[in-house]
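Researcher: Going back to the complex we discussed earlier. I've cleaned up the inputs and rechecked each line, so this should be the final set. Can you rerun the prediction on the complete assembly and write out the structure?
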Amino acid sequence: MSVTAAKGFTAAGIAAGIKENGNPDLALVVNTGPRRAAAGVFTSNRVKAAPVLWSEQVLKSGQVSAVVLNSGGANACTGPKGFQDTHATAEKVAEVLGRGAIEVAVCSTGLIGVLLPMDKLLPGVEKAAESLSEHGGEKAAIAIKTTDTVHKTSVVTKDGWTVGGMAKGAGMLAPGLATMLVVLTTDADLDDDVLDKALRAATRTTFDRVDSDGCMSTNDTVLLLASGAAGVTPEYTEFAEAVRQVCDDLGQQLIRDAEGASKDIKVEVINAATEDDAVEVGRSIARNNLLKCAIHGEDPNWGRVLSAIGTTSAAFEPDRLNVAINGVWVCKNGGVGEDREKVDMRYREVHIVADLAAGAETATIWTNDLTADYVHENSAYSS
Amino acid sequence: MSVTAAKGFTAAGIAAGIKENGNPDLALVVNTGPRRAAAGVFTSNRVKAAPVLWSEQVLKSGQVSAVVLNSGGANACTGPKGFQDTHATAEKVAEVLGRGAIEVAVCSTGLIGVLLPMDKLLPGVEKAAESLSEHGGEKAAIAIKTTDTVHKTSVVTKDGWTVGGMAKGAGMLAPGLATMLVVLTTDADLDDDVLDKALRAATRTTFDRVDSDGCMSTNDTVLLLASGAAGVTPEYTEFAEAVRQVCDDLGQQLIRDAEGASKDIKVEVINAATEDDAVEVGRSIARNNLLKCAIHGEDPNWGRVLSAIGTTSAAFEPDRLNVAINGVWVCKNGGVGEDREKVDMRYREVHIVADLAAGAETATIWTNDLTADYVHENSAYSS
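Model: Rerun complete. Updated structure for the full complex:
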């Protein structure tokens, strides 16, 4: 299903030989129209990979005919040659599809600071184009995996139109966005400015609030392509909600597959003075290594939650803070609350509620525990 | 030596039974005069432990006669009862020494959110007072250990006067300050405003730039006590430099004993537009979990350095950044530099230089690698 669940799209995923282990590493998604409106959101890291710099230019026209994605190399910090390689990749896709290169978005993921093997990538584009199919969404989703253990897809179908998508990402997950490539497609008939509005609204409260390890990638890209093939123009709010649902589902899949994680942690900040305060506090808790280790050890260590809250500039009084872990209010009024022995930490999902007692705003950040497996994976895998 | 290297101080370290394993857990440092000027720097965490709230008030007078320190419990997030306990501890010290309670600073370290066993602590104060000695500095340094594997002391002796000190801290090390208790003493004859100036200048470039795990404690305290017993008033610059040296030495000892660490990482940011930029970039690099894992794996993964720099607001151009790891410029002009195979990562100290090519300012942040041992220690030890 994935990106080909919506009508008007074909996709392929093949092994071009970029990855030395022979796994699939090249995906192609093509909008067969009749429309080709598109929107994109990119990493806010100031060190941007060549494909991000290229695709940002492509998206300025609001038109995308195809997206080519490779795993096995991020093409980041690769200088002018890296940018030439991205450009050559777009040119190759344009050539085989009979489109203009400026309509071809490029995404790369993998090791930073290494040039892509263009002698393998360019023939791979031809091979991918030959295997394009209306059923190719699954294979495309598989070809963009790096340390992902599973491929991630999501589809929402409404009355006569569909939003579908695929995502990759398992580490370097943090706001703005994650090490994360996402392609969403829809057969709804919409202009690029509507797509852009819906996509930004959706990513702001989904991918931007997934923070696995606090590390922001150089390559993050989320694209939304509309073919118009369904011949339906949905109401904005209904469409925006469908996009949000797909983004939320894919974001959850990213967290559940985060490198080395054994716990998915939902950090819900309530009664904040502002939404910004709620997000700042949520991120501070989500990034606290000591707390993440404690959760790994199934220790409801609320003191580490309070010390994380204390580092923020959010409005709160220390002696009015309350913290619940899995439904037990272990901290009340900044001090000892209910018996921590009551907290059941056996399950994968852990729910932390931080009550700032300072207003009525709320935000939820998702993160993971910090584990020896995360350390092993990231000290052994050069990425 | 430690806090009793300077004349005019006695100290003791005993086992009061606060720690269940029977290890030393209570230290007392007494200024026997003739002067008792003092200065203090405290955590910038807004969630402050009871002893921090108390000692901040004590230091307002610029006079400290004694410092009582306990390990085995942080007395943080313990509400009004916790504050009463700190107050009762100061009263007890005042009583046994015949001083005023408002001249007694209190420091605590250990688990957050648990009340101290006052039935053990108060008799412990009496026991400590009985064993006060001009040679007690070492025992005091031992009694404040938590997960520290070694006790930390440092002494600088100049022409007729001395600055000495002790420190504890092994995790939750981050700016403003670390989970760190430090008591410095001097027999120089100086006013509290001079002590304050010298202490703030010293901590700004030493303890404040030690960032083991990005987590800021609720209990950090650095105290500097002057007895005047040497009868010498040194020049300010000479005194300030001696204080800086002791702080720097103790800060280095904290990093070398950080929980689970196998590498000490010196992050030196050069050619920054401002010192603030240099510190911001240094902290961002020092807190990047992916980089810290890579260093643990002896992988000179400069891409993770660049992605960390890219998250800051410092002045720089991505294509002018240079990065050296252990003397090899593995990244030049934002791209691939010298062969990363040349980097020798076998030794404990790792030196990362980030050249922002944007000015002439510099700053150095010290951190550690992220290891499975850190995870194990902090998922098993409730602190």
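Model: Worth noting: Chain B has two domains: 2-256, 264-380.
Researcher: Good, that matches what I expected from the previous run.
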